[in-house]
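Each letter names a residue; the fold follows as tokens. Both lines appear below:
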Amino acid sequence: MFRKGLLLLLCLLSFNSFSSNNGDLLKIGILYFNPPFAEVVGSNTPIAFGFNVEIIKNICTIINKQCELVPMRFDKLLQALDNNRIDAMIVGISLMPERPENYLFSYPYFISEAVFFTLRSNQLTDLNNQTIGIVKNTLFPLSDRYDLVFKTRKEKKYLNHKDELRFKFYNNLPELLMALNTHQVNAVVLDAGAASYWINLSSRQYVQIGPVVARKSGLRIMTTKNHVQLISRINNALLEMEKDRTLLDIYRQYWGALTPSTHVQGYLIRQSPHKYQFIIPGAFND
């Protein structure tokens, strides 16, 4: 689990040079501010640190490439990738672009869950018929209505339960949190790491609500289809980091003990006009 204040004790990396000085420069897009995954401080000599930065630093070393971090807002990163101004992006968000067939994805470097949270002052007891804010091109396919299905305990029995959700999409994280704080939405959904950070930082202003939703695809590095060799080398680097326990060491630095979620697991199903489709296939067991 994310431990507050840990980021300041971890490795700080300047933008213009890490990894080997051999080979062509790779431009890697990151977010300006998405703790604990990435955070950029300073203007004259920007410094980046966070979980994603540590991951990509090790990858660049293994594939023997010099890498430059390019910080942007999330929606601008997608445009930069499409226009070849960056070679790849690592953002600490479960990516779900509108046309995934146009991109290549690495193996997951982190398996995450989607977590809902709301303002404590909203005094919500469930998510049924609520408007949920989400960053566009993340977590779930673009659709404005979903059913959230999960098990609930009633009279000593577990029963299937369904909440109907309305999704409202935003371009980036600052817009999303502003929408929550100004009551444009009733709750928001983020990857678990980012949700944990903001809940902890809010001094009890934010509170988690509802079940968590497993994200089987996890967090992945994304590039365009003309970078087949690059994504292959990134995948090989991730396998090497898994084998020599580098990945595990980075996990433990940022997240502490790796334990299964104790929260109720839910599943999202898109409503019409789409046909019903389980986002995370699975069956409920009594």
Remarks:
- The longest helix spans residues 228-243.
- The chain has two domains: 26-111+217-279, 113-214.
- The chain is about 25% helix and 35% strand.
